[in-house]
Design a protein that fits this description.
7 strands, 5-stranded antiparallel β-sheet, 23% helix, 209 residues, two-stranded antiparallel ribbon, alpha+beta
């Protein structure tokens, strides 16, 4: 009456000449599935809308994605891009994945763990800093989750962010010809499509669960 999923794993426990062979066969079987009555299921459909603020935030994000950076001789501030070398140490020893050379980081972007980027605000090219930080409890590498570490950082360059103008060339790069108003209309349409897909995907996930 068993319904095996695949081939068994065989462990022979007795195999003496002239006697019956004894063995243990281990295998997975298909479970018995009791389908819930659809009439008793409760689903929650999320409701949301794309606001003018959402559209403005997306315009800002798209400009930031096309930003250019030029080297400056001053202290680093939020939105600047810094080029750094660093070594992360735990209990005085470098840990895997904690070393980099020539890495570009935009301060305030949240690329790295909390405290790393803010710890470089005010630094100049050529400056070295030691950052005492703690990895978040839910960090993907279990050996580092919740652990206190030290990053030894050298700042190689500080570059200032320059956002592209909202002009015809910028709009054309997104296949928009008519200007800012049409650009915002296109953004809203895309965001509304993504929102609809996200709501539907969430609903389907609830159904499958």
């Amino acid at each position: 009456s068993l319904n095996p999923v695949g081939m068994p794993s065989i462990d022979i426990t007795k195999n003496a000449q002239g006697e019956n062979v004894e063995l243990v066969a281990t295998f997975e079987v298909f479970p018995e599935v009791n389908i819930a009555d659809p009439a008793e299921l409760t689903l929650e459909k999320f409701v949301a809308e794309v606001t003018d603020e959402d559209v403005e935030n997306m315009v800002s994000k798209l400009r930031q994605q096309r930003a250019e950076y030029s080297e400056v001789e001053r202290e680093a501030k939020e939105t600047d891009q810094v080029n750094v070398d660093y070594v992360g140490k735990k209990d005085g020893e470098p840990f895997d994945g904690g070393t980099a050379e020539g890495q570009d980081i935009v301060l305030g972007s949240g690329q790295l763990i909390e405290g790393f980027e803010s710890g470089l605000v005010g630094a100049k090219a050529g400056e070295e800093r030691e950052l005492s930080l703690t990895f978040p409890e839910d960090y993907q590498a279990e050996s580092l989750a919740g652990q206190a570490v030290i990053f030894e950082v050298k700042v190689n360059e500080v570059k200032e962010q320059k956002l592209p103008e909202l002009d015809a060339d910028f709009f054309k790069s997104f296949e928009v010809e008519e200007g800012l108003d049409e650009f915002k209309v296109k953004i809203r349409e895309n965001m509304e499509t993504q929102l609809k897909d996200a709501i539907e995907a969430n609903l389907k996930s609830q159904v499958m669960d």
